[in-house]
Amino acid sequence: MDKPAFTPRVFSGIKPSGGLTLGNYLGAIKRFVGMQGGEFETIYCVVDMHAITVWQSPEDLRHATREVAAGYLAAGIDPDKSILFNQSRVSAHAELGWLFNCVARVGWMNRMTQFKDKAGKNAENVSLGLYAYPSLMAADILLYHATHVPVGEDQKQHVELTRDIANKFNHDYKVDFFPETVPVIEGPAMRVMNLRDGTKKMSKSGESDMERINMTDDADTISKKFKKSRTDPDVLPETMDGLSERPEARNLVNIYAALADTTGEAVLSEFGGEGWGKFKPALADLAVDKLAPISTEMKRLMADPAEIDRIMAKGAEKANEIAQPILAKTFDIMGFVR
Ligand code: TRP
């Protein structure tokens, strides 16, 4: 049987659990903007239902949902070119998520490394939602028959699980209905590290604000954080191999490369042999140049939350138009009487 041709379609999402960081921007949003307006239909989501897998106060959830939407918009996601919405407005996500809970196997979930890391010793006491989360993520993606998902390395396993769910569904019901989604993982800074400890991921919840760049930081703060970031006593090497044992230095070079749309090698061909006194101010200036306009625009957008809400509501209508027929077909395939 011929495989159905699926529309080239991108889906990706960011969780509104705390503010946006440079990691979200370089690892996700900047790449999302790059995929917009080309060969793909692009759908970008604020995955609010994923955020509540760990406790969020209602005020925090509301604020963070709008802030993530503002970040998307300020960085260049255009609601006329992409579908931008928050997940909870399209109830089909939750419905397909439940159906997939009945397709995915407990053994598959037990292998999810992110769950093991997040739950840690506390596994008996985390929410059931945190455990089932990858099955909802599969629903997010397959609800739109998305063919490509730009994500960071840490989400690769979840996209593989999405493929496993699609394949098992297709196999069990003898259909060729869900596509095999491909993760798109690329770029020098897909994993942006902590500015104080280059072995840890830059996170929105780390204790010191100096270890991360928030997308709402103003120019002075961005500049100060890079200038005070942790480094080592050596000069920069000529090639990336020379950074393999220097996590802080490697991180700063990767950030520079991602901001400048170039490679680490190209950055080192310019700065190899130079010390931090030269590199850090150059990085700080580049970062201010690229990020300060985004933070200014985010502030402007956040001053009018009703406008952000209108944009997300319109996006949700468009998302729903794609999602509803796919959900309806899934119900029919499974034998629900409707
Ligand atoms: N799990 C992703 C993260 O933590 C967020 C996410 C939820 C997502 N649903 C998605 C990403 C669908 C891509 C596609 O970063």
From TrEMBL:
<dbReference type="Pfam" id="PF00579">
    <property type="entry name" value="tRNA-synt_1b"/>
</dbReference>
<dbReference type="InterPro" id="IPR024109">
    <property type="entry name" value="Trp-tRNA-ligase_bac-type"/>
</dbReference>
<comment type="function">
    <text>Catalyzes the attachment of tryptophan to tRNA(Trp).</text>
</comment>
<dbReference type="GO" id="GO:0005829">
    <property type="term" value="C:cytosol"/>
</dbReference>
<feature type="binding site">
    <location>
        <begin position="23"/>
        <end position="24"/>
    </location>
    <ligand>
        <name>ATP</name>
    </ligand>
</feature>
<dbReference type="InterPro" id="IPR014729">
    <property type="entry name" value="Rossmann-like_a/b/a_fold"/>
</dbReference>
<protein>
    <recommendedName>
        <fullName>Tryptophan--tRNA ligase</fullName>
        <ecNumber>6.1.1.2</ecNumber>
    </recommendedName>
</protein>
<dbReference type="GO" id="GO:0005524">
    <property type="term" value="F:ATP binding"/>
</dbReference>
<feature type="binding site">
    <location>
        <position position="140"/>
    </location>
    <ligand>
        <name>L-tryptophan</name>
    </ligand>
</feature>
<keyword id="KW-0436">Ligase</keyword>
<feature type="binding site">
    <location>
        <begin position="15"/>
        <end position="17"/>
    </location>
    <ligand>
        <name>ATP</name>
    </ligand>
</feature>
<feature type="binding site">
    <location>
        <begin position="152"/>
        <end position="154"/>
    </location>
    <ligand>
        <name>ATP</name>
    </ligand>
</feature>
<keyword id="KW-0547">Nucleotide-binding</keyword>
<comment type="similarity">
    <text>Belongs to the class-I aminoacyl-tRNA synthetase family.</text>
</comment>
<feature type="short sequence motif" description="'HIGH' region">
    <location>
        <begin position="16"/>
        <end position="24"/>
    </location>
</feature>
<feature type="binding site">
    <location>
        <begin position="201"/>
        <end position="205"/>
    </location>
    <ligand>
        <name>ATP</name>
    </ligand>
</feature>
<keyword id="KW-0030">Aminoacyl-tRNA synthetase</keyword>
<keyword id="KW-0963">Cytoplasm</keyword>
<feature type="binding site">
    <location>
        <position position="192"/>
    </location>
    <ligand>
        <name>ATP</name>
    </ligand>
</feature>
<dbReference type="GO" id="GO:0006436">
    <property type="term" value="P:tryptophanyl-tRNA aminoacylation"/>
</dbReference>
<dbReference type="GO" id="GO:0004830">
    <property type="term" value="F:tryptophan-tRNA ligase activity"/>
</dbReference>
<dbReference type="InterPro" id="IPR002306">
    <property type="entry name" value="Trp-tRNA-ligase"/>
</dbReference>
<comment type="subunit">
    <text>Homodimer.</text>
</comment>
<dbReference type="InterPro" id="IPR002305">
    <property type="entry name" value="aa-tRNA-synth_Ic"/>
</dbReference>
<keyword id="KW-0648">Protein biosynthesis</keyword>
<dbReference type="InterPro" id="IPR050203">
    <property type="entry name" value="Trp-tRNA_synthetase"/>
</dbReference>
<keyword id="KW-0067">ATP-binding</keyword>
<feature type="short sequence motif" description="'KMSKS' region">
    <location>
        <begin position="201"/>
        <end position="205"/>
    </location>
</feature>
<dbReference type="InterPro" id="IPR001412">
    <property type="entry name" value="aa-tRNA-synth_I_CS"/>
</dbReference>
